[in-house]
Design brief:
mainly alpha, three-stranded antiparallel beta sheet, elongated, single chain, 5% strand, Serine Threonine Protein Phosphatase 5, Tetratricopeptide repeat
């Protein structure tokens, strides 16, 4: 990457040439420290080390503490070598949840959908993929600041042609990546720093004395230099006070991993700040109970109940508030980012401030910070327009110990934060927070408290989204029983848990019992909330899904058409994901009911809606795209179906992994179109792999396992193994009948293919009996002109002809031809196969549960 010259080399060069390159993307890099001193050799080592792609800046083994300048080294490197890069991006990495949100915020700069439309998880994964490909930038630098545990980041460190720089206190990084150790300043660097920081009033001799007492720790020197600049205190007086403070600290036996002189230096700065502007110190104490990430200035924007009179008075006076923030910056106790409107306090300073305060005062300040965060964050986490506020608050959730607060509005804020993470598809982070809140709240308020039960309902939804159905069943059943006992069966939380119970039953393959529960849930929602509300509409959608899983597509369609009309007429608050879920359900039901052309029209509109409002990588958009691919395939538009199926499957693998239920469904979709277009071997390999993976998600007797096995059997016959196909289909049929019976769409799909297996094995009479029986059952279940019914009729015609029963064959042929003419048309690929006298195959696509 370039010649290795520094930016300074290029600026001072006397040779004519183009101006230094400026990164096209420069994201969240802290401002350059004008007093940065020395470290020349370390910066050069760092620059050379990044040739190996990943380098960590670690404290020297003898000084495993903060304040040695790891972050400042990374900031200086970014500014000094920026001409080598097209993209430079800063990522706070001390909390794993912040890493993904920071990566996600890079998405729009790479031409990808933002996190506000695709969700944090999907946007972050899309960014990693774009960096890996080097599109649109190959020369990129990502800086992960304050990365703690390597295990939390190794899976998310970007691969590809660019560079990764890590700062950390954890020396275990040295066994994973190239490491550059950084120690305290050399004495020469300390003297140089102080004489630069205090250009007037300090001699090299005094700087040397000061550095000696402060152990050459850069952060302590910065504090001392700022205090000297602001107060004019002499070095002798500073050293006298420092000695007094240090003695006091040592006499108190204060345990600290930092030299007592560092703590004393900080105390001097605080004392001077309190004398100059007491309210600035009050503000600093509040900042100590946020996280070490940037604090939005707007968090101090409004006087709210519960704040101390002092803070309320300060917030109510914007001029005095601005001065207080400025003083924190001038005393080097906080760092301001004016364009971003944030305040950031070093974690060491935060710890020292908290340490100085009595326990009761710590509790008061922490609680008021909880109130400030609650007021700052918008109310509706489902509205994508509010997601920036939630992202800004996210880094302070854990460090502020929000989980310990019992205030109702603060707990509601915590629930909303989990809902935001769910809505933005950051399921892992949402689950982690939900579990921590449940543990803390249960220990304080009891396991049957309303807040605990509500969070447990959120956790159940998250477990299902993660495909962890077994854990969801256990968790949600306990939640349901506790909610009904503590809150009553008609409470909104109990009803949500009851609807979750139905989803758990679908995941277990118990479609009929799920339907009974969903009908009861819908009835109660309508009684308690009315018909025009999202909880009721979601309950209607669940009932429609149940009807579809029972092969009753007409009732499912009627319900969904009605709820779509109600949603559109009521103009609800923004909730595009829920609306798309219902709209996609309608398109899927129309397709399953046999109206392929109409399903394509609905699916195309739904997919366009999802891309526009949620982005192409959002979970619901991907599901809509998968269903659209199936509809195009059924309608005979194979080229578009193949292109979309490949795209959706790749995105699922990238974002959710191979074993997620949505990925498996997308793999089945792709395998089916591959088989349809003659790519038999590719389809067989994919189907075989998917069938092996399905029992990891659903129980062995789940209908989806058997339905997908039927797809595999079909491919086994096509590729020359009809006997194996027969055995697989017989086992699949035997597995389906206990849960679904013979008169179900899934079972009859298997029997159609099993009859063809028998015909391929020369058992024509048995094939005829099975196909004709399936035809009668399909006519009763789906109607005479449903495409699956017509497939069974076409195969029965072929069997009759092989048996020499030409008159019966001719009669059935005429009726079937008329059926194709009235529905799919005689130009449809299925009709053409029928007209040529060949048999049709039936396949299965698993819908979401």
């Amino acid at each position: 990457m370039g010649s290795g010259m520094t930016q300074g080399d290029r600026v001072t060069s006397t040779q004519p040439g183009p101006p230094p390159r400026i990164p096209q993307v420069w994201g969240k890099i802290p401002p350059k420290n004008k007093n940065f001193t020395g470290r020349t050799d370390l910066l050069e080592r760092l620059h050379q080390g990044l040739g190996d792609r990943v380098t960590a800046v670690l404290p020297h083994a003898l000084h495993g503490l903060g304040g040695v300048g790891k972050t400042q080294m990374a900031v200086e490197y970014a500014h000094r070598y920026q001409a080598n890069y097209d993209l430079v991006w800063w990522i706070p990495a001390d909390q794993p949840v912040l890493v993904r949100s920071s990566l996600a915020s890079l998405a729009t700069y790479l031409g990808l959908p933002s996190a506000s439309v695709s969700g944090v998880e999907d946007a972050a994964n899309a960014v990693l993929e774009a960096l890996r490909r080097g599109e649109p930038y190959t020369d990129w630098l990502l800086i992960f600041d304050n990365a703690d545990e390597p295990e939390e980041l190794t899976d998310i460190l970007p691969q590809g042609p660019g560079h990764v720089l890590i700062t950390s206190r954890n020396h275990r990084w040295a066994s994973i990546v190239d490491a550059v150790p950084i120690d305290v300043f050399t004495r020469e660097e300390s003297v140089e720093f102080l004489t630069r920081r205090v250009p007037k009033g300090i001699t090299p001799e005094d700087a040397d004395r000061l550095a000696e007492e402060l152990g050459d720790l850069p952060l302590a020197l910065e504090q001392a230099g700022a205090l000297h600049t602001e107060t004019g205190i002499t070095v002798s007086e500073y050293l006298r006070l420092l000695t007094q403070r240090t003695s006091q600290l040592l006499s108190q036996g204060r345990p600290s991993e930092y030299p007592a002189s560092m703590t004393a230096a900080w105390a001097l700065s605080v004392a001077s700040l309190e004398e100059k502007l007491p309210e600035a110190l009050d503000l600093l104490r509040y900042c100590a109970f946020f996280g070490p990430e940037p604090i939005p200035r707007d968090a101090f924007n409004k006087v709210i109940p519960g704040l101390s009179p002092e803070l309320s008075k300060l917030i109510a006076d914007p001029i005095r508030l601005g001065r207080a923030i400025g003083e924190l910056n001038r005393f080097a106790l906080a760092r301001l980012d004016v364009p971003a409107r944030t305040i950031q306090v070093h974690r060491l300073i935060q710890a020292l401030i908290r340490d100085e305060l009595p326990a009761a005062e710590q509790d008061r300040l922490r609680h008021e910070v909880h109130l400030l965060l609650t007021e700052y964050t918008p109310e509706d986490p489902g509205d994508a327009a509010n997601w920036t506020g939630y992202l800004n608050a996210l880094g302070h959730l854990g460090p502020s110990r929000i989980a310990i607060c019992q205030e109702p509005q603060v707990r509601n804020f915590a629930i909303n934060m989990v809902r935001f993470l769910y809505a933005s598809a950051d399921y892992e982070s949402a689950r982690s927070f939900a579990q921590s809140f449940i543990r803390e709240w249960s220990s304080v308020s009891g396991s049957d408290h309303e807040n605990v039960l509500e969070m447990r309902v959120e956790l159940g939804d998250l477990l299902r989204e993660l495909g962890q159905y077994d854990e969801a069943v256990t968790s949600n059943l306990e939640t349901l029983q506790a909610a009904e006992k503590a809150l009553g069966p008609d409470h909104r939380i109990a009803l949500r848990a009851l609807r979750g119970r139905a989803a758990d039953l679908r995941a277990s393959g118990d479609f009929w019992q799920a339907h009974e529960i969903d009908e009861e849930t819908l009835r109660r929602f309508e009684l308690t909330l009315g018909k025009d509300d999202w909880p009721t509409w979601r309950a209607v959608n669940s009932v429609a899904l149940d009807y579809g899983l029972k092969s009753d597509y007409l009732n499912a369609r009627t319900l969904l058409e009605g709820v779509i009309r109600e949603i559109r007429a009521s103009e609800p608050s923004p909730n595009p994901a829920s609306y798309l879920n219902i709209y996609t359900g309608l398109a899927r039901t129309v397709r399953l009911g046999g109206d392929y052309s109409e399903a394509c029209d609905l699916g195309e509109d739904a997919y366009a809606y999802g891309i526009e409002l949620l982005g192409p990588d959002h979970a619901w958009t991907l599901r809509t795209g998968k269903d659209l691919s199936i509809a195009w395939r059924r309608a005979g538009d194979y080229d578009r179906a193949m292109e979309l199926a490949e795209e959706i499957h790749q995105r699922y693998v990238r974002t959710l992994g191979l074993d997620h239920p949505d990925t498996l469904a997308a793999a089945i979709c792709l395998s089916n179109i591959q088989r349809t277009t003659g790519q038999f071997q590719d389809a067989l390999v994919l189907a075989d792999d998917t069938v092996r993976r399905y029992p990891r998600v659903y129980i062995a007797e789940h209908p989806y396992n058997h339905g997908c096995a039927g797809n595999l059997a079909l491919l086994r016959r096509i590729t020359g193994d009809p006997e194996i196909a027969r055995k697989i289909n017989e086992d699949a049929l035997a597995g389906l009948e206990p849960k679904l019976g013979r008169d179900h769409h899934y079972s009859l799909t298997i029997t159609i293919n099993l009859a063809t297996d028998l015909a391929a094995l020369g058992e024509t009479e048995a094939a005829y009996r099975l196909s004709s029986g399936s035809l009668r059952r399909l006519q009763a279940l789906l109607g005479e002109n449903h495409p699956t019914t017509l497939s069974a009729a076409a195969n029965t015609v072929a069997n009759l002809r092989e048996l020499g029963r030409d008159e019966e064959a001719a009669e059935l042929f005429a009726a079937t031809e008329e059926g194709y003419r009235r529905t799919l048309t005689l130009d449809h690929p299925d009709a053409l196969v029928f007209l040529e006298g060949r048999r049709l195959d039936a396949d299965f696509d698993p819908p979401p549960i």
